[in-house]
Specification:
Blueprint: H1 3-23, E1 32-34, H2 44-51, E2 64-67, H3 76-82, H4 86-96, H5 101-116, H6 124-131, H7 140-155, H8 166-170, H9 173-186, E3 206-207, E4 215-216, E5 225-228, E6 238-243
Parallel strand pairs: 1-6
Antiparallel strand pairs: 2-5, 3-4
Helix pairs in contact: 4-5, 4-9, 5-7, 5-9, 6-7
Length: 267
């Protein structure tokens, strides 16, 4: 499918959903159903070719798989480590209390700026240097994506380029949360560009990179795996519990998929 036509359709869909949400003063979430693609044959030859096909091959390259267990024990060591940075603990707690990825991203950005006493434009260097020696393997490019590319379009909307939306932050927020725990507990000098580390906290589980399926666990310790599959275009989360019973377009293939679609009545 031509990318330009698909993007135009996505923009139209998002405008319609935004309008419904605004008119009803309601929150809105967007998913792709299962299947996320239907084929409409144009002639008998295409219809015959599709007749013996069993289904569509799934492409999970647009999936987000991350271990998100960032807990720590409250003891004399951790309490002592937080004594000079209760402001940071509060900012990080504010961030993880949020459920929307973009809101969480913005609060995490404020947290990192506070930790290193640097604005976002000067944050990439010290933050990436601090996170370089961690089991999560944060790269300079990944940190630059947080602090420069996505940060500008998520905060400022007065530029000619498009403002960032919810889906832009979905892939980065989980690893930013883990980085926040690392900074809060392991940064030697709080509210300073200094990148010295101490060994107070180490994640029991996590992802080795921003990619898919590259994770680690610690024997004997709990780990919580959060897995979100996106549609084959890598745009909207795939609603695995919403299986279309029949094709919404007459004559589309496959004609039958699964059980009736369900939902909670939200937009």
């Amino acid at each position: 499918m031509p990318a330009g036509a698909r993007i135009a359709l996505e923009e139209s869909l998002e405008r319609a959903v935004d309008l419904i949400a605004l008119s009803g003063h309601a929150s809105r979430h967007m998913w792709s159903p299962t299947p996320d693609v239907l084929l409409l044959p144009e002639d008998d030859a295409e219809r015959a070719w599709l007749a013996d096909k069993r289904g569509l091959e799934s492409d999970v390259s647009g999936s987000n798989c991350v271990l998100t267990d960032c807990r720590f024990s409250i003891n004399d060591e951790t309490l002592g480590a937080l004594v000079d940075r209760w402001d940071g603990a509060g900012l990080l707690a504010d961030a993880i209390a949020l459920h929307e990825s973009m809101s969480q991203f913005r609060e995490l950005t404020r947290f990192f700026e506070r930790a290193f006493a640097r604005s976002s434009s000067k944050l990439s260097g010290p933050l990436s240097a601090f996170l370089a020696d961690t089991p999560m393997h944060y790269s300079r490019d990944e940190v630059n994506r947080w602090t420069v590319e996505l940060r500008h379009t998520s905060i400022h909307a007065d530029r000619s380029r498009l403002a960032a939306r919810q889906r832009d932050a979905f892939f980065v927020a989980p690893r930013m949360v883990a980085a926040g725990y690392d900074v809060l507990l392991n940064k030697m000098q709080w509210h300073s560009p200094d990148t010295s580390r101490r060994a107070v906290w180490r994640p029991w589980s996590g992802s080795h990179s921003a990619g898919v399926g590259d994770a680690f666990l610690t024997a004997g310790q709990p780990g919580k795996l959060a897995f979100t599959m996106f549609d084959r275009f890598g745009v909207y989360p795939l609603a695995l519990d919403v299986l279309l019973q029949t094709a919404p377009i007459p004559g589309a293939w496959p004609p039958k998929v699964g059980r009736p679609a369900g939902g909670d009545g939200g937009v």
